[in-house]
Design goal:
Order of helices and strands: HHEEHEEEHEHEHHEHEHEHEHE
Protein name: nicotinate-nucleotide diphosphorylase (carboxylating)
Distance between the termini: 38 Å
Pfam families: QRPTase_C, QRPTase_N
Helix content: 40-55%
Structural class: alpha/beta
CATH topology of the largest domain: TIM Barrel
CATH architecture of the largest domain: Alpha-Beta Barrel
Strand content: 15-25%
Shape: elongated
Mean pLDDT: 97
Organism: Bdellovibrio reynosensis
Number of helices: 11
CATH superfamily of the largest domain: Aldolase class I
Pathway: Cofactor biosynthesis; NAD(+) biosynthesis; nicotinate D-ribonucleotide from quinolinate: step 1/1
Largest sheet: 6 strands, parallel
Number of domains: 2
Keywords: Glycosyltransferase, Pyridine nucleotide biosynthesis, Transferase
């Protein structure tokens, strides 16, 4: 689904038979200005979705952005100024804010994780735990926050997980079968030290260390040669992330970047007097 299709669906959801409140006021076009204001410190993402939501109802709207996506914005700073028919802007307000608030929330949450691992070699990755239809937007927001994208979808990369291992009767069988059909790099999920040894013996590209405590992660890294990348995953939060990075893994994947990020607090202030 394209961004424009998402926006059209969101507007249809929000006003299936129009905005009965605004339309019942029988307001004539009111050309004026509005300002988008940060009500907390945020990292900006979703500017295009915000702008196109406005344009869907007010094609002549003019938006001047004072920040770029990925910029840190402080509480009470003005993110952008809007000029156009404020009656139509009012109708588009909630949809536009929903996009920008959600995506800026992901970027802001990601930036917190990225700052926690600053000074280490570890990179923060997202996962496929995204809102259906919003994956491209949400993964772009992760990048705006300073994180990196893991595979975009199941067609993008090979990752042998626990169910693949179970159905094939072990890591060796699974890796060998995949290599018969693909030349892509292989990542294998390992839950035990025995599985790590098997993955190392198969010379896979990356090993995902799943749901291991810090002591087990240290043992795992002592078994894995430097040419094999390592990724820690499972129960990763802001309180723990720094200690995991200091162990020396290459990557930490965090589902919470997309599935648990709070919405960024922003508001649209209208200047009806002008």
């Amino acid at each position: 689904m394209t961004l424009l299709e998402l926006i059209r669906a969101a507007i249809k959801e929000d006003m299936p038979q129009g905005d009965v409140t605004t339309e019942s006021l029988a307001l004539k076009p009111r050309i004026g200005r509005a300002k988008l204001k940060a009500k907390e410190d945020i990292v900006l993402s979703g500017a295009s979705a915000f702008e196109q939501s406005m344009q869907a109802l007010e094609p002549n709207v003019r938006i001047k952005w004072h920040f770029e996506e990925g910029d840190e914005i402080l509480k009470n700073q003005i993110i952008c100024t809007i000029e156009g028919d404020l009656v139509q802007v009012l109708k588009a307000e909630r949809v536009a804010l929903n996009f920008l608030g959600h995506l800026s929330g992901i970027a802001t949450h990601t930036r917190r994780f990225v700052k926690k691992v600053a000074g280490t070699k570890t990179k923060i990755l997202d996962t496929r735990k995204t809102t259906p239809g919003f994956r491209e937007l949400e993964k772009r927001a992760v990048v705006h926050g300073g994180g990196m994208n893991h595979r975009m979808n199941l067609s993008d990369a090979i990752m042998i997980k626990d169910n693949h291992i179970s159905v094939m009767g072990g890591i060796k069988n699974a890796v060998n079968r995949v290599r018969e059909h693909s030349q892509l790099h292989i990542e294998v999920e390992a839950r035990t030290l025995e599985e790590i040894k098997e993955a190392v013996d198969m010379k896979v590209h990356r090993i995902l260390l799943d749901n291991m405590d810090n002591e087990m992660l240290k043992k795992a890294l002592s078994m894995i040669p430097s040419e094999i990348e390592t990724e820690a995953s499972g129960n990763m939060n802001l309180e723990r992330i720094q200690s995991v990075a200091e162990i020396g893994v290459n990557y930490i994947s965090v589902g919470a970047l997309t599935h648990s990020a709070p919405c960024a607090d922003v508001s649209l202030v209208f200047n009806w007097e002008d």
